[in-house]
Model the fold of this input.
Amino acid sequence: MNSAQLPDLDIVRLRLAAGFLGEKDKSAWWSSDFLGRNAGAFMTPIFGNKTRLAQYHGVTEAACRVHDDHIGVGRAFHLFRLPERLEQRLFDRMLHHAEPADFDQCCASTESAEQILAALAAGTAQVDVGPMRVGTTDMFDGSEWVLVLAAHYLAAFKAGIQCYPYFTERQ
Done:
Protein backbone atom coordinates (compact mmCIF):
# COMPACT_ATOMS: atom_id res chain seq x y z
CA MET A 1 0.00 0.00 0.00
CA ASN A 2 1.52 3.37 -0.91
CA SER A 3 1.23 6.49 1.21
CA ALA A 4 -1.59 7.88 -0.94
CA GLN A 5 -3.71 4.94 0.22
CA LEU A 6 -3.07 5.36 3.92
CA PRO A 7 -6.25 5.26 5.97
CA ASP A 8 -6.48 8.97 6.72
CA LEU A 9 -9.78 8.56 8.51
CA ASP A 10 -8.24 5.91 10.78
CA ILE A 11 -5.40 8.30 11.64
CA VAL A 12 -7.93 11.00 12.50
CA ARG A 13 -9.89 8.54 14.65
CA LEU A 14 -6.71 7.43 16.38
CA ARG A 15 -5.74 11.04 17.12
CA LEU A 16 -9.20 11.84 18.44
CA ALA A 17 -9.46 8.76 20.67
CA ALA A 18 -5.92 9.05 22.06
CA GLY A 19 -6.29 12.83 22.34
CA PHE A 20 -9.54 12.44 24.26
CA LEU A 21 -8.12 9.83 26.63
CA GLY A 22 -5.03 11.94 27.31
CA GLU A 23 -6.92 15.08 28.32
CA LYS A 24 -6.89 16.47 31.85
CA ASP A 25 -10.18 14.97 33.06
CA LYS A 26 -9.29 11.47 31.84
CA SER A 27 -5.66 10.31 32.06
CA ALA A 28 -4.15 13.81 32.34
CA TRP A 29 -1.23 13.31 29.96
CA TRP A 30 -1.85 16.90 28.79
CA SER A 31 -3.78 19.71 30.43
CA SER A 32 -6.21 20.51 27.61
CA ASP A 33 -9.94 19.91 27.50
CA PHE A 34 -10.69 20.48 23.80
CA LEU A 35 -12.74 17.29 23.53
CA GLY A 36 -14.47 17.49 26.90
CA ARG A 37 -18.19 17.41 27.40
CA ASN A 38 -18.64 21.21 27.46
CA ALA A 39 -15.86 22.26 25.10
CA GLY A 40 -18.11 22.53 22.07
CA ALA A 41 -20.45 24.92 23.87
CA PHE A 42 -17.58 27.28 24.62
CA MET A 43 -15.95 27.00 21.20
CA THR A 44 -18.99 27.18 18.91
CA PRO A 45 -19.61 30.94 19.35
CA ILE A 46 -16.03 31.55 18.18
CA PHE A 47 -15.52 28.86 15.54
CA GLY A 48 -19.08 28.23 14.33
CA ASN A 49 -19.29 25.34 11.90
CA LYS A 50 -15.52 24.83 12.18
CA THR A 51 -15.72 23.95 15.89
CA ARG A 52 -14.89 20.27 15.31
CA LEU A 53 -11.87 21.28 13.23
CA ALA A 54 -10.73 23.62 16.03
CA GLN A 55 -11.20 20.89 18.63
CA TYR A 56 -9.22 18.42 16.52
CA HIS A 57 -6.36 20.86 15.99
CA GLY A 58 -6.40 21.99 19.61
CA VAL A 59 -6.05 18.50 21.07
CA THR A 60 -3.50 17.57 18.42
CA GLU A 61 -1.33 20.56 19.35
CA ALA A 62 -1.67 19.94 23.10
CA ALA A 63 -0.69 16.29 22.69
CA CYS A 64 2.12 17.19 20.28
CA ARG A 65 3.74 19.52 22.80
CA VAL A 66 3.72 16.87 25.52
CA HIS A 67 5.06 14.20 23.18
CA ASP A 68 7.79 16.55 21.96
CA ASP A 69 8.76 17.36 25.56
CA HIS A 70 9.23 13.64 26.28
CA ILE A 71 10.62 12.44 22.97
CA GLY A 72 12.41 15.52 21.69
CA VAL A 73 12.18 17.25 18.35
CA GLY A 74 14.34 16.34 15.42
CA ARG A 75 14.31 13.17 13.44
CA ALA A 76 11.58 11.55 15.50
CA PHE A 77 7.89 11.48 14.61
CA HIS A 78 4.84 10.49 16.62
CA LEU A 79 1.06 10.36 16.22
CA PHE A 80 0.66 14.06 16.83
CA ARG A 81 3.59 15.23 14.69
CA LEU A 82 3.89 13.29 11.46
CA PRO A 83 5.91 14.02 8.33
CA GLU A 84 4.66 17.11 6.48
CA ARG A 85 3.06 15.18 3.60
CA LEU A 86 0.88 13.23 6.05
CA GLU A 87 0.04 16.30 8.11
CA GLN A 88 -1.08 18.13 4.97
CA ARG A 89 -3.31 15.25 3.92
CA LEU A 90 -4.89 15.07 7.37
CA PHE A 91 -5.45 18.82 7.41
CA ASP A 92 -7.11 18.67 3.99
CA ARG A 93 -9.23 15.71 5.12
CA MET A 94 -10.55 17.62 8.12
CA LEU A 95 -10.97 20.93 6.28
CA HIS A 96 -12.58 19.83 3.02
CA HIS A 97 -14.37 16.61 3.82
CA ALA A 98 -17.08 15.72 6.22
CA GLU A 99 -15.90 15.10 9.75
CA PRO A 100 -15.54 11.49 10.79
CA ALA A 101 -19.01 10.08 11.32
CA ASP A 102 -17.85 8.76 14.66
CA PHE A 103 -16.30 12.01 15.98
CA ASP A 104 -18.75 11.86 18.89
CA GLN A 105 -18.00 8.19 19.50
CA CYS A 106 -14.27 8.91 19.67
CA CYS A 107 -14.97 11.47 22.39
CA ALA A 108 -18.13 10.25 24.12
CA SER A 109 -16.59 8.30 26.99
CA THR A 110 -13.47 6.50 28.08
CA GLU A 111 -15.06 3.22 27.02
CA SER A 112 -15.99 4.41 23.54
CA ALA A 113 -12.53 5.91 22.93
CA GLU A 114 -10.93 2.65 24.08
CA GLN A 115 -13.24 0.75 21.69
CA ILE A 116 -11.99 2.92 18.81
CA LEU A 117 -8.38 2.14 19.78
CA ALA A 118 -9.16 -1.57 20.12
CA ALA A 119 -10.83 -1.63 16.71
CA LEU A 120 -7.75 -0.01 15.16
CA ALA A 121 -5.14 -2.00 17.10
CA ALA A 122 -3.29 -5.00 15.78
CA GLY A 123 -3.17 -7.24 18.82
CA THR A 124 -1.67 -6.05 22.06
CA ALA A 125 1.50 -4.17 22.87
CA GLN A 126 4.00 -4.26 25.70
CA VAL A 127 4.47 -0.72 26.94
CA ASP A 128 6.80 1.05 29.33
CA VAL A 129 6.65 4.48 30.91
CA GLY A 130 8.11 7.23 28.75
CA PRO A 131 9.28 7.40 25.15
CA MET A 132 9.20 4.13 23.25
CA ARG A 133 10.62 3.66 19.75
CA VAL A 134 8.21 1.48 17.77
CA GLY A 135 9.69 1.63 14.27
CA THR A 136 11.12 3.74 11.49
CA THR A 137 9.55 6.28 9.20
CA ASP A 138 9.71 3.68 6.42
CA MET A 139 6.54 2.29 8.01
CA PHE A 140 4.65 5.41 6.90
CA ASP A 141 4.61 3.99 3.37
CA GLY A 142 2.14 1.38 4.59
CA SER A 143 -0.66 1.31 7.13
CA GLU A 144 0.72 -1.04 9.80
CA TRP A 145 2.08 1.87 11.84
CA VAL A 146 -1.49 3.01 12.60
CA LEU A 147 -2.26 -0.42 14.07
CA VAL A 148 0.98 -0.39 16.09
CA LEU A 149 0.25 3.03 17.58
CA ALA A 150 -3.34 2.12 18.43
CA ALA A 151 -2.13 -0.97 20.31
CA HIS A 152 0.46 1.04 22.24
CA TYR A 153 -1.91 3.82 23.25
CA LEU A 154 -4.62 1.35 24.25
CA ALA A 155 -2.20 -0.64 26.40
CA ALA A 156 -0.79 2.50 28.02
CA PHE A 157 -4.19 4.01 28.87
CA LYS A 158 -5.47 0.71 30.24
CA ALA A 159 -2.31 0.27 32.35
CA GLY A 160 -2.51 3.85 33.61
CA ILE A 161 0.97 4.75 32.38
CA GLN A 162 2.25 7.47 30.08
CA CYS A 163 3.94 5.89 27.09
CA TYR A 164 4.98 7.99 24.08
CA PRO A 165 5.47 5.76 21.01
CA TYR A 166 7.56 7.26 18.22
CA PHE A 167 9.34 6.53 14.95
CA THR A 168 12.82 7.51 13.80
CA GLU A 169 14.37 7.83 10.39
CA ARG A 170 16.30 4.80 9.21
CA GLN A 171 19.99 5.17 10.07
